[in-house]
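Protocol step 4 of 5: obtain the predicted structure for the target chain.
Materials: sequence only (see below). No template structures provided, no constraints applied. The aim of this step is simply to have a reference model before the mutagenesis design in step 5. Sequence pasted as it appears in the construct record:
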Amino acid sequence: MSDGMSGGKSAGASNGMSAGMSGAHGPGSESRATADSRHDPAALAELLGIWGEVLGLPEIDPEAGFLAQGGASVTAMRVVNRVRARFGVRLPLTLLLSGSTARDIAAHIDSETTGNEVSRP
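Step 4 output (structure tokens):
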């Protein structure tokens, strides 16, 4: 099942197309475009590695939410602790449990480490 955030529109946003022009997902797509353009690719790669280790998966979909990939509250706490240890960032548990994608969370991590504000979904 999908978290509802990973439709075909996000591919256009990540390719640099104007999310506001993509149609039905208007404001949500704009948030996704903002998050995609502001996260550090290295932070995303490390976050995907953390998710993969915690969930025991060889590959993580950066466009799917944590729960949609088999996560639960206990495993989410493990991610929160590893993110804090690796990045020095306090990641709100609600971000993992609310359907935010790995890209969204990487943008949050980047905003916390660089001071840039990022729109949240």
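Step 4 remarks: Residues 1-36, 117-121 have pLDDT under 50 and may be disordered. The helical segments are 9-14, 26-38, 41-55, 73-87, 93-97, 102-114.
Proceed to step 5.
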